[in-house]
């Protein structure tokens, strides 16, 4: 009660209020700085401790000083300057040291020691300050309140330290500040209660109140300046942290090379978009974008050119999107976009395909890439982000299948098509690795004598569960997968090895795919195979198609010429079905043409077919070429073909394609074709 | 930096009405003149049968940047780079970007014919096409382009 009495009756309440405000603000700022010190590491921890000490010490001192100015004493008062300054130094250093101690170790005793140091520094400041307070009168001290003030200051400061680590929900983290303030205030007024002055008689009482007020305001201002400095240093640090945090966030969510959204950012945005689907948002689209031929750019021009191309691709994609949504780089040459309005998806995809089909000029080089795009629409095609991306990928796959540099919308049927194709691909790779193919041989006969002249090797793939797979399906696939070279070599080797066991007058015809012909190593491969199998070159006939000549006729010409020089016979297959350009017959070293079965089947019934067969046979004969008629099924066709100059015949009439082991008996058994029934 | 020259063609994806198209071509030409002047580029733009034929020459960096910017422009459709190679000297040094188009005036029959011929040369022989362009522009007495527009 004496304390309250002391505050109310011995003090000017305005000064008390000003002191309280100073103390409250100072305590709050001190606590923030203290927390900052605790969060900091290394040298900056000492800096923050010092700053906490400066703010705490100034606040304590200002609180004390302002309150002292409001202390109504019956005697004249002056302040000793040196001691007053010493008191603020003690407050700053003492509390700073206290804060530092609390941070030294998480052990309870250490933290208690730190808190006590802070509390005792408050007390030390107060009592040193009281020495500076010179009053013309007899001063008395009440030891009870003196000790009480020390105990309260130390104890409550310790509580403030402990509260710093507690998560308090009631005071929203302000508990330490409130405790610190309580400690300062209690110490001051307990101390003042202990303090008593009896004025000497005959001496004028009181101080010049105007000068006192001016001084109070000046002190308060200086103290607030110090506190403000503390606040601003905290804010500066906070802002720096926020900006470095946002820089970190940018780094984490953006691709370093292109500066566009990265995989993480894209997935987060897509997930948000999917989550918003419930809110009756309009349909949106996901675009999976894949660069065509990008790997070759890195391989042939180096990574620095590849990186520059990727940067420009990113920039072009932004242009193609034109604000219609978000585009990101998922990694490598894989990009994706979210188009906010699904109605725009195809237009955007078209722009993406178009803009990336345009060349890139990098360091004087022309880089041609391209892009394929798959589109999936949410929620129509899927509502889950992963499913949407997967469906967009499926559509992308379909776009690539369709020849690249185009886009496709997802359709349910694409999934089965893709799965079927992937399964077939895997089976084919396995078959190639195991050489799981067989060769059948269809004999050919001389149209004049009926004697066997040789056979054409036909590739068969008999899959365990699929059954016979047509070459029309697996050969194009093998070409796409780059497996055709291995298959071709296997066919050539196997056929030659088989033929080497036949009578020396029998020849073997082997089909070449356009890709094999385009390979400049073909002549070397052929000569190796001939050497390995011991088959004379003259007994090998390589069948090519016109399409093989179309693609790269210079290369084809030199390859065919070399094969011809080796003695290998070249024949042009399926003649009459393609361009049937007569210039090929003239330009290329061709020994034989094979008239396609579609014409032979019609010779008896269709005047046009008959005319074509006659014309081709006539032309070939006059150019000095040999002629084979394929697909002879009956005597009429045989007779017609023989009559018009086809010197070799092949077809079911003579023999179906046979497995290798049945061929020698067939060759030996019948050397003449049966008459038609 | 060595001099380079490129030639590209594109189809104009312009607005439907003819006067709008003219305005757009004018804006393209004016814009490219201002830019080319700054970047040390020179060149010529022809417009035949709805197709732009543009030659552009200058320092490699500026040339590549400008071509990249053209690639960002969706007013071009079917943009095809016909030729891009180092050049020992400029062919269009007089013009930051000059423009010549077919029109219906009877007096320009010969120019129109030459433009038609160029249109076909471009796809077969880029170097010859650029020589023809230069000859045609000199014959037309095309002044430095900025004075024309």
TrEMBL record, chain A:
NCBIfam families: GGDEF. Residues 421-671 form the EAL domain. The chain crosses the membrane at residues 12-34, 46-72, 84-105, 112-133, 145-165, 177-200, 212-236. PANTHER family: BIOFILM ARCHITECTURE MAINTENANCE PROTEIN MBAA, DIGUANYLATE CYCLASE DGCP. Residues 282-412 form the GGDEF domain. The keyword Membrane applies. Keywords: Membrane, Transmembrane, Transmembrane helix. This is EAL domain-containing protein. The keyword Ribosomal protein does not apply. InterPro entries: Biofilm_reg_signaling (IPR052155), EAL_dom (IPR001633), EAL_sf (IPR035919), GGDEF_dom (IPR000160), MHYT_dom (IPR005330), Nucleotide_cyclase (IPR029787), Rev_trsase/Diguanyl_cyclase (IPR043128). Residues 11-198 form the MHYT domain.
UniProtKB/TrEMBL annotation, chain B:
Residues 3-98 form the BLUF domain. InterPro entries: Acylphosphatase-like_dom_sf (IPR036046), BLUF_domain (IPR007024). It comes from the Bacteria. SMART domains: BLUF (SM01034). It holds the Pfam family BLUF. This is BLUF domain-containing protein. It comes from Mesorhizobium liriopis. The lineage of its organism: Bacteria, Pseudomonadati, Pseudomonadota, Alphaproteobacteria, Hyphomicrobiales.
């Amino acid at each position: 009660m004496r304390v309250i009495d002391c505050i109310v009756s011995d003090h000017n309440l305005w000064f008390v209020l000003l002191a309280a405000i100073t103390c409250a603000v100072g305590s709050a700022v001190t606590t923030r700085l203290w927390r900052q010190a605790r969060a900091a590491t290394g040298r900056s921890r000492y800096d923050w401790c010092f700053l906490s000490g400066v703010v705490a010490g100034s606040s304590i001192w200002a609180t004390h000083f302002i309150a002292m100015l409001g202390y109504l004493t019956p005697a004249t008062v002056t302040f000793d300057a040196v001691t007053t300054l010493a008191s603020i130094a003690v407050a700053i250093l003492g509390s700073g040291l206290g804060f530092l101690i609390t941070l030294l170790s998480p052990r309870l005793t250490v933290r208690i020691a730190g808190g006590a140091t802070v509390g005792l520094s408050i007390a030390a400041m107060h009592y040193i300050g009281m020495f500076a307070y010179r009053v013309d009168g007899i001063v008395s001290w009440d030891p009870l309140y003196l000790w009480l003030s020390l105990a309260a200051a130390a104890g409550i400061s310790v509580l403030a330290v402990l509260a710093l680590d507690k998560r308090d929900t009631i005071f929203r983290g302000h508990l330490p500040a409130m405790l610190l303030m309580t400690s300062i205030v209690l110490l001051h007024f307990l101390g003042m209660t202990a303090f008593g002055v009896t004025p000497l008689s005959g001496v004028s009482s009181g101080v010049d109140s105007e000068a006192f007020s001016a001084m109070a305001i000046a002190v308060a201002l200086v103290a607030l300046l110090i506190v403000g400095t503390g606040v601003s240093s905290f804010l500066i640090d906070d802002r720096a942290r926020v900006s470095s945090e946002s820089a970190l966030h940018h780094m984490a969510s953006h691709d370093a090379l292109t500066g566009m959204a990265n995989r993480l950012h894209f997935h987060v945005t897509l997930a948000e978009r999917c989550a918003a689907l419930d809110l009756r948002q309009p349909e949106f689209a996901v675009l999976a974008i894949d660069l065509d031929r990008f790997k070759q750019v890195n391989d042939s021009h180096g990574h620095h050119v590849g990186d520059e191309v990727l940067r420009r691709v990113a920039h072009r994609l932004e242009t193609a999107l034109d604000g219609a949504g978000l585009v990101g780089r998922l990694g490598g040459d894989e990009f994706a976009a979210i188009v906010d309005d699904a109605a725009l998806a195809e237009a955007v995809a078209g722009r993406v395909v178009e803009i990336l089909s345009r060349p890139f000029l990098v360091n004087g080089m022309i880089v041609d890439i391209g892009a394929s795009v798959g589109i999936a629409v949410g929620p129509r095609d899927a509502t889950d982000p992963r499913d949407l991306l997967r469906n967009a990928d499926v559509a992308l796959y379909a776009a690539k299948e369709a020849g690249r540099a185009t886009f496709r919308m997802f359709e349910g049927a694409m999934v089965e098509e893709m799965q079927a194709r992937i399964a077939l691909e895997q089976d084919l790779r396995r078959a190639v690795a195991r050489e799981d193919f067989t060769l059948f041989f269809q004999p050919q006969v001389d149209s004049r004598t009926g004697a066997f002249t040789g056979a054409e090797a036909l590739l068969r793939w008999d899959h365990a569960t699929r059954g016979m797979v047509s070459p029309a399906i697996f050969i194009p696939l093998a070409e796409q997968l780059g497996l055709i070279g291995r298959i071709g070599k296997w066919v050539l080797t196997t056929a030659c090895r088989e033929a080497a066991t036949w009578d020396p007058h029998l020849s073997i015809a082997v089909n070449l795919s356009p890709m094999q012909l385009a390979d400049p190593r073909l002549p070397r491969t052929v000569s190796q195979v001939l050497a390995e199998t011991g088959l004379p070159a003259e007994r090998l006939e390589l069948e090519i198609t016109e399409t093989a000549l179309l693609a790269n006729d210079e290369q084809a010409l030199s390859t065919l010429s070399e094969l011809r020089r080796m003695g290998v016979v070249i024949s042009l297959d399926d003649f009459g079905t393609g361009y049937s350009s007569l210039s090929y017959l003239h330009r290329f070293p061709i020994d034989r043409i094979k008239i396609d079965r579609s014409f032979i089947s019609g010779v008896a019934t269709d005047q046009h077919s008959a005319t074509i067969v006659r014309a081709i046979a006539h032309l070939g004969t006059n150019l000095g070429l040999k002629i084979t008629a394929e697909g002879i099924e009956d005597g009429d066709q045989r007779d017609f073909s023989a009559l018009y100059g086809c010197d070799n015949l092949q077809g079911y009439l003579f023999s179906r394609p046979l497995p290798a082991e049945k061929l020698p008996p067939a060759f030996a058994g019948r050397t003449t074709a049966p008459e038609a029934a | 930096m060595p001099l380079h020259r490129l030639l590209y063609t594109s189809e104009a994806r312009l607005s439907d009405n003819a006067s709008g198209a003219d305005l757009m071509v004018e804006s393209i030409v004016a814009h490219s003149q201002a830019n080319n002047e700054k970047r040390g580029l020179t060149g010529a733009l022809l417009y035949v049968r709805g197709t732009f034929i543009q030659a552009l020459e200058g320092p490699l960096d500026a040339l590549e940047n400008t071509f990249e910017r053209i690639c960002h422009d969706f007013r071009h459709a079917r943009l095809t780079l016909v030729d891009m190679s180092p050049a020992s000297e400029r062919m269009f040094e007089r013009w930051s970007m000059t423009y010549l188009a077919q029109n219906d005036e009877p007096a320009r029959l010969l120019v129109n014919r030459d433009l038609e011929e160029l249109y076909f040369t471009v796809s077969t022989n880029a170097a010859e096409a650029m020589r023809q362009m230069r000859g045609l522009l000199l014959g037309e007495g095309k002044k430095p382009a900025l004075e024309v527009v």
